[in-house]
Amino acid sequence: MSEEKKIEFVDNPDFNRWLEENYAVAIEEFEYLSSDVLYRVSYDDYIEALNRYNTDPKIELSRIEEKFPSPIAYYFYQAINNYQNDHHRLDLLKSCWESIVFFLYGLVVAEARHRKISLKSIGIIWKTLWSDRLFDKLTIVENIIDYTTKNGIPFYCAPLIPISTLTLIKNLNQERNGFEHSAARTAAQQQALYNDLYPLLECVLKQLIKIENVTVLRYHSAETPLIPRCEIYNGSSLEGRKETVILKKDNYVEILDYFNANSLFAKVNSEVFCLSPFIHYYQEIHETNAIICFYKKEKSGKYLFEVVGKSQDKEFDKTTFALMENQLRSLVM
């Protein structure tokens, strides 16, 4: 063991959790945390495993599939493992790319609203905030992160989303014509296009690896207000799993008026905030779990959302998002 421990056990909670989920340690009827065992038995081996965790491409890809917010993880997994043909695989790749943009946009604007950041000061106008252009969404995300970083404003999303990665996403955005006209290509051409575009998408996802720390949740029930039981939407399955979430008291007070099953929330660095109005959920009467959906555009006086994993859109009355929309309006007008 090294004479001086430069890395403390508590410094890498995600890696520790990954070890515990993938490697069980049991002696007779006794179970132990594999991360704790490795750290105590051989610090040097622990550091070696940590380095592999941070650099091994296969481990990184498994983290994307298992930890990323469900819309991104779902389409990524499907594009790699569950496509029907070359055209379908390209469609899944396109959906994954669009989900990245939709999710980053909804997440960043949601935190800006939660922190009451003046969007007007950044130059964001109301019409552009509701634009259906992906380029506009990426530009708004970039401007908010740049503004909060340069002005020293605490913003949890900033370390998760490098500005350089947003530039790379914009470059991928320019490849949209390749996606849009893929149906007119031969199978060989579609396969070649996939081989060109997939590395770009994988590069973006790896640069966004810290997004694995964003927990997407929907309130389900609570015996104790600060420890609610929630549906968690992370990983490649679209079906939320039930887990308890711990809220800080001051944070709970901030969201108390709307912390219910009518909205989706994100938890970043122990802070929980509402993802409305740009990320929402849809639930069929006959279905047990809700499915995430993204705002696309305004249509006939209603908001049109795209349902993840289904070839359908869903209309919502604007009143559904009145509270969050009014809060956003106060930051723009």
Quick structural gist:
With 333 residues, the protein is an alpha+beta fold. It contains 14 helices and eleven strands. Helix 6 runs parallel beside helix 12.
Overview of the structural elements:
A hairpin with a 2-residue loop joins strand 9 (291-299) and strand 10 (302-307). The protein is 49% helix and 16% strand. The chain has 14 helices and eleven strands. It is α+β, with helices and mostly antiparallel strands and 333 residues long. The strands form three sheets. Strands 5-4-3-6-7 form a five-stranded antiparallel beta sheet. It has helices spanning 13-22, 34-41, 43-55, 57-67, 70-81, 86-114, 119-122, 126-129, 134-150, 163-173, 176-180, 187-207, 249-255, 322-332, and strands at residues 25-27, 30-32, 215-221, 229-232, 241-244, 265-268, 271-274, 279-282, 291-299, 302-307, 313-316. The protein is globular and about 65 Å long.
Architecture blueprint of SSEs:
Blueprint: H1 13-22, E1 25-27, E2 30-32, H2 34-41, H3 43-55, H4 57-67, H5 70-81, H6 86-114, H7 119-122, H8 126-129, H9 134-150, H10 163-173, H11 176-180, H12 187-207, E3 215-221, E4 229-232, E5 241-244, H13 249-255, E6 265-268, E7 271-274, E8 279-282, E9 291-299, E10 302-307, E11 313-316, H14 322-332
Antiparallel strand pairs: 1-2, 3-4, 3-6, 4-5, 6-7, 8-9, 9-10, 10-11
